[in-house]
Amino acid sequence: MSILVFAEHDNSELKSDTLKTVAAAQAIGGDIHLLVAGHNCQAVAEAASKVNGVSKVLVADNAAYEHQLAENVSLLVTELAADYSHIIATALTTGKNFMPRVAALLDVAQISDIIAVESSDTFVRPIYAGNAIATVQSLDSKKVITVRSTGFDAVATDGNAEIVALDKVTDAGISSHVSDELSVSERPDLGAASVVISGGRGMQNGENFKLLEGIADKLGAAIGASRAAVDAGFVPNDMQVGQTGKIVAPDLYIAVGISGAIQHLAGMKDSKVIVAINKDAEAPIFQVADYGLVADLFDALPELESKL
Amino acid sequence: MKVLVPIKRVIDYNVKVRVKADNSNVDLANVKMAINPFCEIAVEEAVRLKEAGTATEVIAVSIGNKSCQEQLRTALALGADRAIQIDTDENLDSINVAKLLQKIVEEEQPQLVILGKQSIDSDNNQTGQMLAALTGMAQGTFASAVTIDGDKVNVTREVDSGLQTISLNLPAIVTTDLRLNEPRYASLPNIMKAKRKPLDVKSAADFGIDLTARTKLIKVTPPAERKAGIIVESIDELVEKLKNEAKVIS
């Protein structure tokens, strides 16, 4: 069996989620190749060659792949797929975008967001916002899979894989990139942070999210948000934790002014330790919190910051 | 332009699902069902395009047994012009859903297909992308803004690092994110009017597509329960517990 893993990157840096996705590939077992599709992404290829367990890095470096448009990347992956039994990507927005397209081009089903591998054709994935766990067997000859990285531990970066440049370009010519509006933050990446502090509707406005910053600085934490906080315009969408936002599983998750709707819990309830600060003692978040503090967040946050 | 909106009947988003005792699936007997929230946003976007004079006709389509006509009537009450039910009792994989939708796209020739980005039951996030692949169309997934620009459509997408805007040739596929719009409520007169709008029923078997299942559900189990935590009385106690008991901060 050979497994093709799509490397998650931004053309300059290999994302740590790729290390977890490779762990999922190792659980399946077989020869693992990493595909780096991008533009001016040599640094990513170098980093990819050091990922433990990878025997070969395929590099498709072309302007057609710079923004990883689904139309172009899916053609590339579909073409490469002939040599592989499993095609795997991380269940982040890039993988979620192009992988089902690959599956359809190959005429196979996709197994999305797996959190465990039972065997080479059977996988475990959450459904109904994580309120049920399904074990699913793929009956197709080729398996197209996306991996929820919080389900796997990152592999080491002590490998030494061969780097092979691909020169064929697959440009569908039906879509183009216009612009990006990226959030710039000095803090750790939400998906990779070991501590996350999130604010919800209780924060009342975007200005008050500053109250989380001092604490985040002291804990080296990323700052997240509930959908209510994003919808209200307090913070940008890429900070949303939940069923339809980011899935996180840090060592410590601090939920501030978040009631704990099903959809939010779906994104954080696999955190190792959950702390809830809420003035409503009846809030559902307290049912999953290891440590709950019933208090007004405007009193609690400055005090917490001063005592860390 | 003609806009096609595939919608799905799912469990209401507020319901806490229960897994059946025999672990065969979740228990959907006597559970409140509704239109998938992302599909509702798709209908709203299509209706807004019609109100803006961009779209000429909005067609809602759903795949399922007779009960999904209820959600199609909801779409009609929200402003869709007509509806198509593809009748089947099977629980289809996304790839087979996409193949049936491909046939409807061939029949109706819409310029734009708007779907939800995922259904809140299976959480697959696949159908729109698969339909795009099968029809050879470009795709704008996780859309938070959609602007028609001549023979192209600009889609602003919610991506991990913020927002990304792409331009797609029409016809194209768009999948909705939560922030695309705020769906309206259907008024009583519109609900009454929706009862008289056309709703075609087609049998899934008549399309001549092989709808054999590609996946097998082995079992469904409840997620691991978190053990009950404690309520601390003060910030001091909280910090002390995090340092010495949970050892997650130093």
UniProtKB/TrEMBL annotation, chain A:
Record key words, sorted: Electron transport, FAD, Flavoprotein, Transport
Gene Ontology annotations of biological process type: fatty acid beta-oxidation using acyl-CoA dehydrogenase
Domain of life: Bacteria
Gene3D superfamilies (UniProt xref): HUPs, TPP-binding domain
Domain Electron transfer flavoprotein alpha/beta-subunit N-terminal stretches: 3-181
Cofactor binding mode and count: Binds 1 FAD per dimer.
GO-annotated molecular function: electron transfer activity; flavin adenine dinucleotide binding
Cofactor names: FAD
Residues that hold FAD according to the record: 201, 226-227, 240-244, 257-264, 278
Keyword Coiled coil: no
Pfam families for this protein: ETF, ETF_alpha
Subunit relationships: Heterodimer of an alpha and a beta subunit.
Alphabetized PANTHER family for the sequence: ELECTRON TRANSFER FLAVOPROTEIN ALPHA (PTHR43153), ELECTRON TRANSFER FLAVOPROTEIN SUBUNIT ALPHA, MITOCHONDRIAL (PTHR43153:SF1)
Family note: Belongs to the ETF alpha-subunit/FixB family.
Known role: The electron transfer flavoprotein serves as a specific electron acceptor for other dehydrogenases. It transfers the electrons to the main respiratory chain via ETF-ubiquinone oxidoreductase (ETF dehydrogenase).
Protein name as catalogued: Electron transfer flavoprotein subunit alpha
Automatic annotation (TrEMBL), chain B:
CDD domains membership: ETF_beta
Domain Electron transfer flavoprotein alpha/beta-subunit N-terminal: 23-211
Keyword Nucleotidyltransferase on entry: no
Alphabetic keyword roster: Electron transport, Transport
Gene Ontology MF terms: electron transfer activity
Example GO BP: carboxylic acid catabolic process
Record keyword Electron transport present: yes
Cofactor(s), names only, from the UniProt record: AMP
Family: Belongs to the ETF beta-subunit/FixA family.
Function: The electron transfer flavoprotein serves as a specific electron acceptor for other dehydrogenases. It transfers the electrons to the main respiratory chain via ETF-ubiquinone oxidoreductase (ETF dehydrogenase).
Assembly and binders: Heterodimer of an alpha and a beta subunit.
Protein name: Electron transfer flavoprotein subunit beta
